[in-house]
Design goal:
Porin, mainly beta, 2 helices, single chain, elongated, 14% helix
Length: 200
């Protein structure tokens, strides 16, 4: 009787392991993404000027953003990346009434970052990015003493989040929201982009 019970328990355990193995084999694996890659993205740029005068308004308007980047996906979950982004026509209305002035600048950022991704099934993944942004603001318009105060450069924390769709090992598409922190002493830069990545 004791031997019969032992055999029954072993059979049940083997059956459970077999069912688990079959279920794991039937579950679709995430598509392979490791390796070196390059990419490009386009989208919207937005930022804001830090204003000390509480009587001034600061209405921001969307500009254009373009980004090129490259990196290495070390594993399915972690990688490294470096890139360059141009934040064109960061427009803001500062002041009020007769003193309302539209200010336009162009921002730049060269960055290095560590990347992370969380696969959600076979093709989709959530992504994150944390690194350092080497920002710069140029081409202020109109060229006045007040607007020229927006110019300069700044090193800041880069934070990003997004989603990714993996078509196959070589091609994937992404949508990303990134904050480059202060790109000068008075201007912060952000972008919302969609792009394509090519893995080798």
């Amino acid at each position: 009787m004791k031997n019969y019970t032992t055999v029954s328990v072993c059979c049940a355990a083997l059956a459970a392991l077999s069912v688990h193995a079959q279920a794991h084999a039937q579950a679709p694996a995430a598509k392979e993404v490791a390796g070196p890659y390059i990419g490009a993205a386009l989208g919207a740029a937005f930022g804001n000027r830090e204003i000390d005068d509480s009587n001034s308004s600061n209405d921001e308007h969307l500009g254009r953003s373009a980004k090129i980047y490259g990196g290495y996906q070390l594993t399915e979950n972690f990688g490294v990346q470096a890139g360059y982004v141009r934040l064109h026509e960061l427009n803001q209305n500062s002041g009020s009434g007769a003193t309302l002035v539209k200010q336009t600048v162009t921002g730049h950022s060269t960055y290095v970052a560590g990347t992370a991704r969380l696969p959600l099934g076979q093709s989709f993944a959530l992504t994150g990015k944390l690194g350092v942004s080497f920002g710069k603001v140029t081409d202020a318009s109109p060229s006045t003493a007040a607007t020229n105060l927006l110019l300069g450069s700044k090193t800041s924390l880069l934070v990003g989040t997004g989603t990714e769709y993996v078509l196959n090992h070589n091609v994937s598409f992404s949508a990303e929201l990134e904050s480059y922190g202060k790109i000068s002493n008075q201007v912060k830069g952000n972008s919302l982009t969609v792009g394509t990545r090519f893995t080798f």
